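Re: How this chain folds, sequence and tokenised backbone to follow
Notation: Tokens come from a learned vocabulary of local backbone shapes, not from coordinates.
Start of record: The labelled sequence and token lines come straight after this line.
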Amino acid sequence: MPLLLIPVLVLALFALWVTLLPLSLWARYRNGRARRRAQGWIVRGNSWLMAASLPVFVFSSWVTTRWMPHALRDASIGLLVGALLGILSLWMTRFERHGNTLWYTPNRWLMLSLTIVVAMRLLAGLWVGWRHLASHAPNEMAAWLDAGAWAAIGGLFLGYGVAYLWGLRARLPH
């Protein structure tokens, strides 16, 4: 009898995940556009950790080219676009100085567009998985959404984070 509850538990967890996913995306958007105080040690630490993750990301994309030939190219394009987006976001961010403290508010439209990219990538992955389970046939969308596309999205967010944090680091009071 307890073994029969396992599929029900799995379905309940999946339903809970699907229910809470929009709420978590909304929380990501709200947190992304919130006014924050730039604490020096946090910004400096995060900027160095993001920079240290760049070679790991590029190396893993290079290894992935064994199975997905365009993974490194897509990851590089994602990094470049993400860095440009980070610079644009830094330019659009509102900065305020109160004494020796720096406060910043990221642009809400750019944060909304990044949140939509996350949501669309999740929906595309679910859709391709659903189509694969339903037909067991190769899907033309699956080739477009292969590991290279995952690497491009990862590169987009990593490039954005590196550019934004290093730009924010440059604006910190010394």
